[in-house]
Amino acid sequence: MITISENAAKQINKLKDDGTPAESFLRVKVVPGGCSGMSYKLDFDQTQNDKDKVFEDHGTKVVVDSKSLLYIAGMTLDYEGGLNGKGFTFSNPNASKTCGCGSSFGV
Fold first, then answer.
1. What is the pTM (predicted TM-score) of this model?
2. Residue 71 and residue 18: Cα distance in Å, rounded?
3. 3-95 CATH pick, 2.60.40.420, 2.60.300.12, 3.40.1550.10, 2.10.109.10
């Protein structure tokens, strides 16, 4: 399961309103790279595959491919705004190490 905080849902919908087609959803992926070995990748997508897992919180749909879900099951996606905000943050219980910026992790 992936949880989306209310702040993250608001920011996703705000970004989506900036010209993204209405039927789009947020796709969360794990890709190789970053200083800790793996990185999070967020994109808007319109194509859902048979093996994708769908999660919805606060009216916001997030889709994760089955391979990525192995690394981020139980994760909470949040958003921290403001002058000192970090943007989207990932609270991933599967990460054994993370980089200083929080955008990459290792298991």
1. 0.84
2. 30
3. 2.60.300.12
